Amino acid sequence: MATDIDYARYDRVRPIHWTGEALELLDQRKLPFATDYLSCRDSDEVAAAIRDLAVRGAPAIGIAAAWGVVLAARDIDAGTAAEAARELEPALQRLNAARPTAVNLAWALARMRAALLAASDAGWREALEDEARAIEREDLAANRTMGKLGAALIAPGSGVLTHCNTGSLATAGFGTALGVIRAGVAQGRVGQVYAGETRPWLQGARLTAWELQQDGIDATLIADAAASHLMKSGKVQWVVVGADRICANGDVANKIGTYQLAIAARHHGVKFMVVAPSSTVDMETACGDLIEIEERDPAELHGVGGSRTVAEGIGAWNPVFDVTPHTLVDAIVTERGVVLDPDLEKMREAFPSH
Ligand code: MRU
User: Read out DSSP for 283-350?
Assistant: First the structure.
């Protein structure tokens, strides 16, 4: 079986461009029918782009925030690295507050703070830019490594179901769960890809289906409500998803609907794989109950594509992530390796210095 992956063929989309003057973000609110880039010229514009989902996906919001710090640095006139750290802190706090659940955001900002503290007084601006570039480069490399590690778990010709969008659009490129699926398709391990539409924001329908189409990979869209029925049919052997935060005990926060997929997968004997870079691992948070789950505007549930579908006066509850307990997870794949049947002990062994 071929194990090499033609990245030029299987990785065509890039959501984040640093131009040297501005951060250009492929506006994911407009996909798939428009590929417009939103130009951010200061850190508050980047924070707004993260909050409003112009850029989304845990690794991508961390990378965007890192570039947001570089933009914030242009608006201050500090003479020393320590002074810069003090003056930039409010902008870092505003970036961090843009979304609460994905730990990659706080992780990237912590790296930017550390880079600043280690920088010389003459070189702190350059150090920030180098760090943002390194975060982006390392994410792409991690995704390619995870693609191979995760695909190796999948038997040739398997069907897989994925949720939300975990692809190039959600990362520096190639993707996490979608990276495993890309690698699996390239190697003949994945025969059929199913994408859940992922209500209410439709990341699966609008983004994943489009992104795979760019690579010439056929994805079959299903209503989220069709997942158990699909599993019962025997057409999928793996559910492969990403993560916004993986706790010390292996509990996983991911897009709302992931938890019910994990329950259904266990019931039907379908394996459940979580794919995320080590920047998503949060060993400081003991278990999933301690994760702040973002709740967004109920209006996201009141309509589709800007058209109201619900009568006026109807209340709605819109949590946009849920937590899958580690007992329902068969494999966590990071660039550092695979943790099978994760628990606290195995996570500590895999991430000793986290
Ligand atoms: O609200 P979103 O679209 O930012 O949620 C994204 C997800 O839940 C993804 O599964 C997760 O961030 C992993 S992306 C590689």
Answer: TTS-SGGGSPPPB--GGGGSEETTEE-S-TT-----B-EEEE-GGG-SEEEETTEEEES--HHHHHHH
> What is the model's pTM?
0.97
- Walk me through the domains of the chain, giving residue ranges and CATH numbers: 7-142 (1.20.120.420), 145-350 (3.40.50.10470)
Distance 59 CA to ligand 1 centre (A): 8
The ligand 1 site (C-beta within 6 Å) comprises 56-59, 102, 164, 166, 170-171, 176, 203, 242-244, 254-255, 320
- Name the closest-CA residue to atom 6, ligand 1: 57
> In which residue ranges of the chain is pLDDT below 50?
none
pLDDT single digits (tens) 177-197:
999 999 999 999 999 999 999
Residue-level pLDDT at 3: 66
